[in-house]
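Possible regression after last week's pipeline update?

I re-ran a chain I had predicted before the update to compare outputs. Posting the input and the new output here so someone can diff against the archived version. Not blocking, just want to make sure nothing changed silently.
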Amino acid sequence: MSRELSYLFSSIVELDDESHFIKLPSQESPSFNIDTDATYRVLFLPKSPGETNATPSHVSDAPVAIDDTLEVLIEDIGSEGDGIARIGPGYIIFIPKTDIGHKVKIKINSVTSRCAFGEVVEHLM
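New output (post-update):
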């Protein structure tokens, strides 16, 4: 098994006619194409005490919140091909469909204490 985490999101496991399934949240957008005929490995982690099912709009350690818009410069490319912008000390934002040197206006879609995921709203240069 690969030691590299490809994608992380929260969802509820549901039961339908004796089968279990996980819905990919619509606000999530993996940095790779999902092949509906492929098999994927899934890791289940229990909720932490006090954690709710709702996706928080702000993570206390994060310098951004969901739905924030900001202008960033793409400084690097991640292993999955997403552009990487850095803000604050050590905080990164992954932005698909960008390249090094692009200056873009983005909207934040997902936030963790270590990184965020955004989408391009406007190409600035």
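Follow-up from reviewer: compared with the archived run. The first strand starts at residue 13 and ends at 16. Marking as no regression found.
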